[in-house]
Amino acid sequence: MLNSGEIYGINGPIIYVKGSSEFKMAELVYVGKEKLIGEVISLTNELTTIQVFEETSGLKPGETVAGTGHPLSVTLAPGILSNIFDGIQRPLKEMAKRSGAFINRGISVDSLDRGKLWKVHVMVAPGMPVAGGTVIAEVPETSAIIHKIMVPPGLAGTIIRVKADGEYRIEEEIAVLRLHDGSECALTMIQEWPIRRPRPTQKRYPATRPLITGQRILDTLFPIAKGGTAAIPGGFGTGKTMTQHQIAKWADADIIVYIGCGERGNEMTDVLEEFSHLTDPRNGNPLMDRTVLIANTSNMPVAAREASIYTGITLAEYYRDMGYHVAIMADSTSRWAEALRELSGRLEEMPAEEGFPAYLASRLSFFYERAGMMKNLNGTEGSVTIIGAVSPQGGDFSEPVTQNTKRFVRCFWGLDKSLAYARHFPAIHWLSSYSEYLTDLSSWYVENTGSGFGDCRNQLVAILNQESGLMEIVKLIGSDVLPDDQKLTLEIARVIRLGFLQQNAFHKEDTCVPLLKQLYMMETILYLHTRAKVLISMGMPMSVLKQSTIFERIIAIKYEVENDAFHKFAGYKKEIDAFYDDVIARNA
Amino acid sequence: MAIEYLGLSEIKGPFVIVEGVQGAAYDEVVTITVDKKESKRGRIVEITDDRAVVQVFETTENLSLHNTHTRLTGHPMDMSLSLDILGRTFNGVGEPLDGLGDIAAECRRDVNGKPMNPVARVYPRNYIRTGISAIDGLTTLIRGQKLPIFSGNGLPHDQLAVQIVKQASLGESGKASGSDEKFAVVFAAMGIKYDVAEYFRRVFEESGVADHVVMYLNLANDPVVERLITPKVALTAAEYLAFEKNMHILVILTDITSYAEALREISSGKGEIPSRKGYPGYLYSDFATIYERAGILEGITGSVTQIPILTMPNDDITHPIPDLTGYITEGQIVLDRGLHGQGIYPPIHILPSLSRLMKDGIGEGYTRADHQDVANQLFSSYAKVGEARALASVIGEDELSEEDKKYLRFGAALEQEFIGQRLDENRSVTETLETGWRLLRILPKEELDRIDNRIMNKYYEGQS
């Protein structure tokens, strides 16, 4: 018997039902004649409070609120990839077909296409014992990804019947299981999973492998591990979204979940259009084939914005359970925090800092802790990496969302306004950013790029730090008065900034750079530094060194050397030697 | 015959409470008749059982607990629309102000609008030429974009908005917008001075576009509650003209700051918990319901482009109003008091200014192949001008290196010749880009590190 109640009061997205009811916490409910989707968020003897995920205008007291008995869940089955959903997993393409260009409310539409036939290859046979996570069938979902149909967590037993390979709809029975208690249970391709509950795993592995993004400043200076967490804070216009797009395009994850949480509609359209045209450099498939978009734009209902983050991570965990490496882009977690604040305000809760509820920190940690490199129930290994954008008010990193996020992430890629003003992109500041994964990943770098990588990186960072110290002096007295060795440090730092840290997202070669090229670029820059240092120590003035175009030549490497043309680096080394000999010959 | 409810149980600021209401809906519009003569409208903002909190447009003056009759209208706030609205002037809630009577309604639309489905949007790519170098060259306006002007009190944002309206045309070949019959301007005034509204009206008339302008005016002395509806009314009209009548609509919203002040006033009246600087926690979401109503839809030739104007309190760009706006809009044009003081018009501070959609609407096939590189180089070099100036102010200009002196010359020339232009000067994109190259030649060639070699070879020597 399902419970129900009547609307008593309405205040924006919050509605109240009077009297003690049979509703459960976090239960999904249908509100009013239009069956708007809502969720129970608090219960007392007198009053049930419900947040509604759709516009509430026009609702009247006295209309029915019907319970469903289960919590807000997502539907997990083939058809998720290359799709675009709103914050509560309603397919936006399907909604556009039904209600046109504007989003109507109360549209009841299946999350996934139930009519579509999928090619199913069954992996189990009668008599086989299975448990939660066991793969019972494989479905080629897109050109890039094989979707693995798994036994839902919590079920265990023996297979007694299976279907033959063939084409099936997601609702059709694939196999029948006899549970340990003797009852039979039919398995389809569908699993439902509550969005606020993490999917179970066997155990957590330490982070030992990097997520390679093809972005030099990230891979080299501040790497993130697969299964790691990172925050990208920055004021408006500093390039949070661009950085997220770049990672979503080029990161070596198997699946990308892109959550547009309270952001611009045009941005989602941009991702949708661009990702359909771009191809994955590793296998040539359209990028959209490995991507799922969750779009809850800033003008969509605020409660659904709150849910969108959880919807996204639940989808990610599901693909992780199949043994894939998933990366989540959450753009922006500040909008999600603001949704919490708005709902909390409507509930008249006691505010903490800047009006945010006191539970902001615990909600953030709960979200970020769902990331990790895991041993799944079926023994496979998969990971969920979370990269969250933060939009601090006034670009001020001391505000509560940035500060609390900083406590739960291990990578901090701080975007800087002055770099963005000078159009230095990515505007990630090398002095304020950090990565706690450096030591965890160092053995991977040694194994895969040789022992020199970490060394080069440290030298680069050292030069940049020296530059920042010298700039304090330059600001006061100008660079002319510095001794030549310090001038050289400034010049090399300039080469590093322009030639290495700055990366052009619109350039065919420069948009994504393999790790080895990053290493060779560093080596070349540092070789130039070593040779030039010798010249300076011999008493050659910096002005003489600057007559050569060698510094500009090295800066241009990022454009001139194609991503597979590593042999060209030998040529640069020769040029540096020639430069060295030339300076000596002319000034001896 | 609809039921009328006699009397009120509470009046507090713009809010009144009606008890014993049957069948009232959240967000429904009610009419309140005072002393059986004067009629006011209000909106239900909270409802608990049979007790409705109504926010009254206009003032609550003259209302007593006993002299009112309240009637439910059964629908949310809506407005009548037809092509007749072109050339007309309305108040902040869409009632005619020009004495020409009600319009013959073709349809009625809910002013709250509905969110556009991102799937149905088309990513905007067609640039609008404004004839203003700093905008065309560095922060290109794209049809379907929302590009606000961040200004301050006393800065010429109104003149700039007017110049954009007068000169806007689609691409190089596009006709002047004024003569384009499918083009229209929707002007929404929120809490601006009478003189400012009059200035816009006069300029629209003088330039002959008045027939294609719809004005919604909520002036500084008009009721604050109405001000919250004004942008919604204006955007509903804009969406109607754009998406049902296939017109290209430029919406000017001024002044967003007054709108946000009104929101704060009403919010504190309701006793809501304030967040930053006393503004309600939902300021971002509320702004989004305005700004996100811009764009282009698939299969429809019309478009809504927004130029909201806001005055930054105390010229502070980190104030919540410009800050939250910048997070929603697709860039911003920032005006600067320093440049204005030097007599440079338009005083656009180019470094914090930005157009997010620019990257896809310029370059080969749109403007010119070198556009992006020239823009990047101008930005990056101008950023260095700031450093050189800071140094000069410490050690004196004479002590600067040759290179730094060149940067100073470049900076001054950029401000005078590129950013600065006359109020009626309409530059072509080629003119703008050539000016850019001319200025870049002031600098040593090796300093131009943002320009691709091929483009350098083709354009550096100049085409003329």
Q: Compute the average pLDDT of chain B.
A: 90
State the separation between the terminal residues of chain A, measured CA to CA.
Answer: 97 Å
Could you name the CATH class of the largest domain in chain B? Answer: Alpha Beta
Q: Low-confidence runs of chain A (pLDDT<50, min 5 residues)?
A: none
Q: pLDDT below 50 for ≥5 consecutive residues: which ranges of chain B? A: 173-180
Helix content of chain A: 25-40%
Strand percentage of chain A = 15-25%
Total helices of chain A: the number is 17
Instruction: Count up the helices of chain B.
Output: 13
Shape of chain A: globular
Number of extended strands of chain A: 26
Structural classification of chain B? alpha/beta
Radius of gyration of chain A: 28 Å
What is the residue-mean pLDDT of chain A, rounded to a whole number?
Answer: 92
**What CATH architecture of the largest domain in chain B would you give?**
3-Layer(aba) Sandwich
What quaternary form is this? heterodimer
Biggest interface and its residues per chain?
A: A-B, 78 and 84 residues
Using only C-alpha atoms, the radius of gyration of chain B works out to 25 Å
Please indicate the count of domains of chain B.
3
Count every beta strand of chain B, where a strand is a DSSP E run of 2 or more residues.
20
Describe the structure.
The complex is a heterodimer of chains A (588) and B (464). By secondary structure, chain A is of the alpha+beta class. In chain A, 36% of the residues lie in helices and 23% in strands. Chain A has 17 helices and 26 strands. In chain A, strand 23 (372-375) and strand 24 form a beta hairpin. In chain A, helix 7 (360-368) runs parallel beside helix 8 (400-408). Chain A is globular, with a radius of gyration of 28 Å. The model of chain A has no long low-confidence stretch (mean pLDDT 92). Chain B has 464 residues and is an alpha/beta fold. Chain B has three domains: 3-75, Elongation Factor Tu (Ef-tu), domain 3 (Beta Barrel); 79-360, Rossmann fold, CATH 3.40.50.12240; 371-459, no CATH class. Chain B is 33% helix and 24% strand. Chain B contains 13 helices and 20 strands. Chain B has helices at residues 133-138, 157-167, 194-206, 224-244, 256-269, 283-291, 320-328, 337-341, 358-361, 371-395, 402-419, 429-440, 453-459, and strands spanning 4-6, 10-12, 15-19, 28-34, 38-48, 51-56, 68-76, 78-81, 89-91, 107-110, 127-129, 141-142, 149-151, 169-170, 183-192, 213-219, 248-254, 303-311, 331-335, 348-355. In chain B, the strands form four sheets. Chain B has an eight-stranded mixed beta sheet with strand order 9-16-15-17-18-13-19-20, with helices on both faces. In chain B, strands 1-7-4-5-6-3-2 form a seven-stranded antiparallel beta sheet, with no helix packed on it. In chain B, strands 12-11-14 form a three-stranded antiparallel beta sheet, with no helix packed on it. In chain B, helix 3 (194-206) links the parallel strand 15 (183-192) and strand 16 (213-219). Chains A and B meet through strand 1, helix 1, helix 4, helix 6 and helix 11 of A and strand 5, helix 6, helix 7, strand 20 and helix 10 of B.
